[in-house]
Specification:
The chain has about 325 residues and is α/β, with parallel strands linked by helices. The protein is globular, with a radius of gyration of 20 Å. The protein has a single domain, classed as Class I glutamine amidotransferase (GATase) domain (Rossmann fold). The longest helix has 17 residues. Helices cover about 30% and strands about 25% of the residues.
Length: about 325
């Protein structure tokens, strides 16, 4: 949140040059405040776990946020009780006529499938198209980020020689970006994926900007030029034991997975992991909510539709089984 200071205070210029957000009394007097409306499209199989992880990150802020969860109507979830989905989840048909300040599209364990072979791809294309007109800023995570880069910009994913699994160091490439305000130059974050969005393809797209990356794990954070779409290739929301649970699950299934890198103490899976990503993950979500949702979304939420010239979107079933661009 900003700090409010008197108009004309000499410290204002110094603080602004240090990327500290300050607000003068004059601007504060003209601010209208209302709860932020946030929609989470949860594509992860263990939905209750993902709900908790994301809400933990979103709740550590003084902002008042109204959160809704959405599921895919064209997909039957197998790992979450139907009663839970009926009680706490909405579908696209329920929200298509509404507007949201922010939206999160999670990852999904379908990386090795071509996008068009994912059973809910057509519905997801409809939702991503709708978000252009009805959502002020959307944050995409892991497979959700790869799917959105493909849909919005035609950037295809690429299969990796082996799975990236573990906690990797990343360097902030745009230190003056508010998205990484307060970050150290180097920070840690978990990854768990078989594919990537190639850095060279992203760099060639004039509408995108790479904000952070890793020598080992590749691109980490990308944003659109208008700051309405963010793409995070890792899983900063992961709990301390999430990678361990994935590792032991795959071991039990006989998949012979590699040990997650930089994760277990002394690379000993009998020892607990040492968490090194909790603080930067929290800061990332707080910065996105503060600078790219709260500070820039219109007070009259229906004016979000005026931010682009995108027409009202049709039924997702009308979308071709392709990139949709």
């Amino acid at each position: 949140m900003p700090i409010k200071i008197q108009d004309g205070l000499p410290a204002r210029e110094i603080l602004e040059n240090e990327n500290i957000f300050v607000m003068t009394e004059r601007r504060a007097l003209h601010q209208d405040i209302r709860p932020l409306r946030l929609l989470i499209l949860n594509l992860m199989p263990a939905k209750i776990v993902t709900e908790t992880q994301l809400l933990r990150k979103l709740s550590n802020t003084p902002l008042q946020i109204e959160v809704e969860f959405m599921r895919m109507a064209s997909h039957t979830a197998k790992n979450t009780p139907a009663e839970h989905l009926l009680s706490f989840y909405t579908t696209f048909d329920d929200v298509r006529g509404r507007f949201f300040d922010g939206m999160i599209i999670t990852g999904a364990p379908v990386e090795l499938l071509p996008f068009e072979q994912v059973d809910y791809w057509r519905e997801l294309c409809g939702i991503m198209s709708w978000s252009r007109r009805n959502v002020h800023s959307t944050l995409h995570i892991c497979w959700g980020a790869q799917a959105a880069l493909y849909y919005h910009y035609g950037i295809a994913k690429r299969e990796l020689p082996k799975k990236i699994s573990g906690v990797y160091l990343h360097r902030v490439l745009k230190p003056h970006s508010p998205f990484f305000r307060g970050f150290d130059d180097v920070f840690a974050s978990p990854h768990s994926r078989f594919t990537e969005a190639p850095a060279e393809d992203i760099a060639r797209c004039g509408e995108l900007e790479i904000l952070a990356g890793s020598e080992e794990a590749g691109v980490f954070a990308v944003k659109s030029a208008d700051s309405r779409r963010f793409f995070i290739m890792g899983h900063p929301e992961y709990d301390a034991d999430t990678l361990a649970n994935e590792y032991f699950r795959d071991m039990k299934a006989g998949l012979n997975p590699e040990l997650p890198k930089n994760y277990f103490e002394n690379d000993d899976p009998a020892r607990p992991p040492a968490v090194s990503w909790r603080a930067p993950a929290q800061l990332m979500y707080t910065n996105w909510l503060n600078y790219y949702v709260y500070q820039s979304t219109p007070f009259d939420i229906e004016k979000i539709a005026e931010e682009t010239g995108s027409p009202a979107d049709g039924n997702p079933a009308d979308f071709m089984n392709g990139a949709g661009i």
